[in-house]
Design goal:
The protein has 292 residues and is an alpha/beta fold. It has 13 helices and nine strands.
């Protein structure tokens, strides 16, 4: 990259991309931000970012183009727009969770264009993104990953290297997210069962306290379920999207994963029921004896 303060195009400034872009700017890097709804990118101007109207403007002259978009179709659409406008020595940092087929297509597009690509989805939700405390999963050639170090330092507390081939990090993200969604759905059904049996969450927590199966994540999500309020840390809609990607990946890998398939269907039902913009813990609403 061209100097100590690279220019980073941040493409997608939603729940995750917005705070990531803010932390990149606060770390002293030059940021040019784009979002499909421009007003959602405007708050980054307070931290010195330049907000542009088109993705091509964001990447023009940038050292790194970071895509952090909601899904595969949005990412591939933006890729078609930005790749012709990127410098020959620029790097594409793909940070969204888009699934195996889509990251493989991104790699093809990057190679056709002749630019380096790093596959770097992140683990964490809104609060870790705001705090610059995400875990970055990074797959790509060492030199390309090294060029991303200032960005990773700004957004994350840890980087896990997942090989030299882009795609490995996406695979790890799907596997880890399968565990996260199993915990979320398991918590929802366990709390619903307790409520249906006339028990209170405090009794569950007391019984689990200090045991190997006690988990801060259970306590956090179960409290939302108990309170019946679901401020969004990671939306049910995005969780359903990720679960569908996991089910697809399992099928393609020859893995029989009935739990993943069931969770994917259940989360999709939650979206259809109108809970998609709430936290993924709102899957509890479908199981709760009182409707959550």
């Amino acid at each position: 990259m061209s100097g100590p303060s690279p220019t980073v195009a941040v493409l997608g400034t939603g729940v995750m991309g917005g705070p990531m872009g803010r932390n990149i700017a606060r770390a002293g890097l030059t940021v040019r931000a784009w979002n499909r709804t421009t007003d959602r990118a405007r708050p980054l101007e307070e931290d010195g970012a330049t907000v542009v109207e088109r993705p091509e403007e964001a990447v023009d002259g940038a050292d790194v183009a970071m895509t952090m978009l909601a899904d595969a179709s949005a990412t591939l659409e933006v890729a078609e727009a930005i790749l012709p406008a990127m410098r020959d020595d620029a790097l594409w940092l793909q940070a969204g969770t888009i699934g195996i087929a889509a990251i493989e297509r991104c790699v093809e597009l990057a190679r056709e264009r002749g630019v380096a690509i790093v596959d770097a989805p992140v683990l964490g939700t809104a609060k870790p993104a705001q705090d610059g405390a995400l875990t970055v999963l990074a797959a790509g050639p060492d030199e390309a990953v090294e060029r991303c170090t200032p960005i990773f330092d700004a957004v994350g507390q840890k980087v896990v290297r997942v090989g030299d081939e882009p795609g490995g990090a996406t695979r790890l993200k799907l596997a880890v997210n399968a565990w996260v969604l199993a915990l979320t759905q398991g918590a929802a059904e366990a709390v619903a069962l307790a409520k249906g049996l006339g028990l209170e969450l405090d009794q569950m927590v007391e019984a689990l306290d200090g045991s190997p199966t006690d988990a801060p994540y259970f306590r956090m999500k179960a409290k939302l379920m108990d309170d019946g309020e679901y401020p969004t840390s990671f939306s049910l809609r995005l969780a359903a999207k990720d679960a569908a990607l996991m089910a697809e990946a399992a099928s393609q890998a020859g893995v029989d994963a009935p739990m993943i398939r069931t969770v994917a269907r259940r989360l999709a039902e939650g979206v259809d029921a109108g809970y998609g913009d709430e936290d993924m813990a709102a899957t509890y609403r479908l199981s709760a004896p009182d409707g959550g």
